[in-house]
Design brief:
Blueprint lengths: L1 H7 L3 H7 L4 H9 L6 H11 L3 H5 L18 H23 L6
Length: 103
C-alpha cells in the first residue's frame, strides 16, 4: 500500500483523511497490523488513482473474469460494465482474503 501511495504522490496525512482515520490507525493499516475495511479500500484506490488489487497486492481478477453479453454495437457501455465488474471482483477477492464473506 505504501508503494501505491508514494507512486501517486499522496502523503500519509492525505491518505488517512481520505478514509477518515487517525494517524496511528493509518500507520497500522499501512504496516499491515490492521486490515482495511472494504469501503476504506475503495476510497484509497480512488485517492491513489489505482485499482484495489494494486493496494492489496492480491492478483488481479481480470484474467479470471469471464463474461458474455449482447450489445447493440456500442462498446462504451460494455467497457464501463467490464471495469465495474473487475472492481467488484477485486473487492470480493480482498474481503474473502480477510475472512469476510457475503452470507
Amino acid at each position: 500500500m505504501r508503494e501505491a501511495r508514494e507512486a501517486a504522490g499522496i502523503s500519509q496525512d492525505a491518505a488517512r483523511r481520505a478514509i477518515d482515520v487517525s494517524q496511528p490507525t493509518y500507520s497500522r493499516i499501512e504496516s499491515g497490523d490492521r486490515p482495511l475495511k472494504g469501503d476504506e479500500l475503495i476510497r484509497l484506490a480512488d485517492c491513489f488513482g489505482v485499482r484495489a488489487a494494486v493496494i492489496t497486492g492480491l492478483p488481479e481478477v481480470r484474467e479470471r473474469a469471464r463474461f458474455a453479453a449482447r450489445t447493440d454495437g456500442d462498446l462504451a457501455p460494455m467497457a464501463i460494465m467490464r471495469e465495474r465488474l473487475y472492481a467488484y471482483l477485486e473487492l470480493d477477492n480482498y474481503l474473502t482474503s480477510q475472512g469476510i464473506t457475503g452470507a
